[in-house]
Specification:
mainly alpha; 5 helices; about 150 residues
Amino acid sequence: AGEVKNRRDIDVILPRELAARIERHINIFRPHVPGHDEGSSLFPGRSGASRKPETIGRVLRRMVERQLGARFNAHLARHLAAEMLMEDDPNNIVVVQRLLGHADPKTTASIYGITRTSAAQGKYAGLVEGLRQREVKRERRKVRRCR
């Protein structure tokens, strides 16, 4: 809670695969970091204390830019996750709110309202296209029966 803006604890259920990867990191890679045995940090610095979030973010940014050639920062990952959920279902506002840890769904809605609207328009366009396709098939069946 002390590390997030709204001062609320965030509980996360990790998928088994991710938990296994974290366990592998702790057992195989972390022992090679100087100072690893002086703390329980997932990403310890040389002194054994946790690396600062901005340091981890900088390393991640450089790695993504070097490997993919794309500009990146850790905060974009939050937005990407939110955008993907909203595109999948415009009603995911509460899911996105919880994922991002916003105390109030109005905060989430104000930030992702445009995505929500475009996702809703996309769902509607898909519905109309589906109805049109069904009508085309129905008309083709009528033509075949008439021949």
